[in-house]
């Protein structure tokens, strides 16, 4: 009997570890001259224990036919996948630096995870407030925001 109960608990733990979630990501481009970009943008968010959600390109998660990452706009991206076990606290946002106007000024990225089974939510806003551009300080095409130690 104890073995059956232990197997039941193990199965319950494994099934919750692979729960499916909906992800909503809001990316706000700054309201500065030439702040928008046509570059491909990728995003990775992770928890304090290193569990990650990696999105190689945000474009497929956005509105079809919509011009994303324009000056002063907030763009919405939605997708689904395995839930993160806890609230994310670290973000890597990256531009490939290609296309017309590759430089990009990012204000912030808001991340929401909604577990499809019980509708519980985990939310985190990552304040960026900087350029992702080779020709603007700090001269990089990526930013890491790490709030895990806070």
TrEMBL record:
Pfam families: PLAT. Gene3D superfamilies: PLAT/LH2 domain. Keywords: Signal. The keyword Nuclease does not apply. Residues 21-146 form the PLAT domain. PROSITE patterns: PLAT. InterPro entries: PLAT/LH2_dom, PLAT/LH2_dom_sf. Residues 1-19 form the signal peptide. This is PLAT domain-containing protein. It comes from Aegilops tauschii subsp. strangulata.
């Amino acid at each position: 009997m104890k073995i059956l109960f232990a197997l039941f608990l193990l199965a319950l733990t494994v099934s919750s570890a692979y729960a499916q979630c909906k992800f909503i990501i809001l990316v706000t481009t700054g309201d500065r001259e030439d702040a928008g970009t046509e570059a491909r943008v990728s995003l990775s968010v992770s928890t304090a224990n290193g569990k990650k959600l990696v999105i190689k390109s945000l474009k497929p998660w956005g509105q079809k036919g919509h011009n994303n990452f324009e000056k002063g706009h907030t763009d919405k991206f939605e997708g689904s996948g395995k839930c993160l076990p806890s609230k994310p606290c670290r973000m890597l946002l990256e531009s490939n630096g290609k296309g017309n106007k590759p430089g990009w000024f990012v204000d912030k990225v808001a991340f929401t995870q909604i577990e499809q089974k019980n509708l519980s939510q985990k939310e985190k806003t990552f304040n960026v407030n900087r350029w992702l551009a080779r020709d603007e300080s700090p001269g990089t095409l990526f930013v890491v925001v790490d709030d895990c130690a806070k």
